[in-house]
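Postdoc handover notes: sequence design on the structure in folder B. Input tokens:
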């Protein structure tokens, strides 16, 4: 049977107009639970980790004072840890710090039920026992009830940030940070800010520290342990005064640089999350404003979620960008039990690769194929206001937990009807 002329024209029109316009891939993950925590002010979760029983711990910051789930404030901004059991019930919430700004950006769950959190502090009082300069990396170990076992500060006379931490099998820890100092605990400065990596023992005593960079500003955002005992770090390096490239740094077990690579285009590009796989490959993710260089396949503006896979030599296996016509970013990444990657982040788009936007900004979860980088699935989470998911972790039963923030009062138990709450989701 032959097509009638009008029908044929319609078919041809649709074929042309739909060409190169991606159809959003959508999947509705099964949500086990959603939970909120916080008080009367702004509260946010930055990182999440899981225990062997499926429980979770979230690290973040709080501006709330003696309200909701928060006790008396120590100062301006407090670092914050929140523990949930496997069913999502709140076990405890504790805030830490001094009179100035203190926050946790990364956390690892420990076999004894405790945790180790890293961030930075401007304080020199309260829970903070010393300060080297303007701002120090702050490392805190707590027991299973959140009580402080020990705390350490590291830095020099200028400022430092603590952005990531991994636990090693011998009980030691390696911290990924950034430093602008060249004294104190910092062995020199290469110019501007440097990537700064520290190893400490089980009691927080410094084993070694090394800084990396050149005359440009560099810094780290995330760290992952590699299968050979080394480390891979994701971060950024200033390519001009105002514009950064994404950076990936490969280290051996002693912290010696194996290689460093930068990726990006002519606009602002950042790599903020990284995961090293057992086969030696590694995937880094973040966001990009570029449409050239390593972002030649980008179809949308202004900034898209950006993910790049490298082999152990730092050679690109594939690079992809995803999003719509507004802002889309990745902030967390895990390797799922099916061998593919799951990324967490945020989106304000409702077109392109994004389907189902609920409001101003949503938390965004996407699944990408480990071999090709192809988008396999995506889902947005949130309400009518701004919401985002900053971190992602794989649970022992194969489910996922994500943490971030929620402005929208989605749940009846919201401790904070008007400002920002810490937000946790378990899904599969």
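Designed sequence:
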């Amino acid at each position: 049977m032959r097509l009638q002329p009008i029908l044929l024209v319609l078919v041809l029109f649709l074929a042309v107009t739909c060409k190169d316009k991606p159809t959003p891939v959508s999947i509705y993950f099964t949500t086990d639970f959603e939970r909120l925590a916080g008080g009367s002010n702004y509260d946010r979760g930055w990182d999440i980790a899981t225990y062997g029983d499926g429980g979770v711990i979230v690290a973040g910051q709080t501006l709330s004072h003696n309200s909701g789930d928060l006790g008396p404030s120590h100062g301006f901004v407090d670092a914050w840890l929140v523990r949930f059991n496997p069913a999502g019930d709140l076990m405890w919430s504790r805030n830490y710090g001094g009179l100035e700004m203190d926050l946790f950006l990364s956390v690892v769950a420990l076999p004894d039920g405790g945790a180790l959190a890293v961030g930075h502090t401007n304080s020199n009082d309260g829970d903070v026992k010393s300060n080297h300069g303007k701002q120090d990396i702050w490392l805190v170990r707590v027991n299973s009830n959140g009580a402080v076992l020990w705390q350490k500060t590291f830095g020099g006379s200028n400022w430092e940030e603590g952005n990531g931490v991994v636990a090693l099998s011998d009980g030691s820890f390696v911290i990924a940070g950034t430093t602008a100092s060249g004294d104190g605990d910092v062995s020199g400065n290469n110019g501007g800010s440097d990537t700064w990596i520290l190893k400490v023992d089980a009691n927080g005593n410094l084993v070694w520290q090394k800084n990396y960079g050149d005359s440009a500003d560099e810094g780290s955002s995330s760290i992952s342990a590699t299968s050979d005992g080394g480390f891979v770090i994701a971060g950024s390096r200033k390519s001009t005064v105002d514009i950064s490239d994404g950076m990936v740094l490969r280290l051996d077990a002693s912290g010696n640089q194996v290689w460093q690579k930068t990726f990006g285009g002519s606009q602002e590009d950042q790599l903020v999350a990284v995961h090293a796989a057992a086969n030696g490959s590694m995937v880094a993710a973040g966001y990009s404003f570029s449409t050239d260089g390593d972002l030649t396949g980008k179809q949308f503006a202004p900034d898209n979620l950006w993910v790049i896979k490298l082999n152990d030599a730092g050679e690109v296996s594939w690079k992809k960008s995803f999003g719509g016509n507004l802002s889309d970013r990745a902030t967390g990444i895990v390797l799922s039990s099916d061998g593919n990657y799951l990324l967490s982040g945020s989106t304000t788009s409702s077109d392109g690769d994004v389907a189902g936007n609920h409001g101003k900004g949503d938390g965004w979860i996407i699944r990408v194929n480990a071999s090709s980088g192809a988008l396999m699935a995506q889902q947005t989470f949130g309400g009518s206001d701004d919401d985002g998911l900053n971190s992602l972790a794989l649970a022992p039963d194969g489910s996922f937990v994500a943490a971030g923030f929620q402005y929208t009062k989605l749940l009846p138990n919201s401790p904070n009807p008007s400002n920002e709450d810490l937000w946790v989701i378990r899904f599969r």
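Context for whoever picks this up: Residues 1-23 have pLDDT under 50 and may be disordered. Don't rerun without checking with the PI first.
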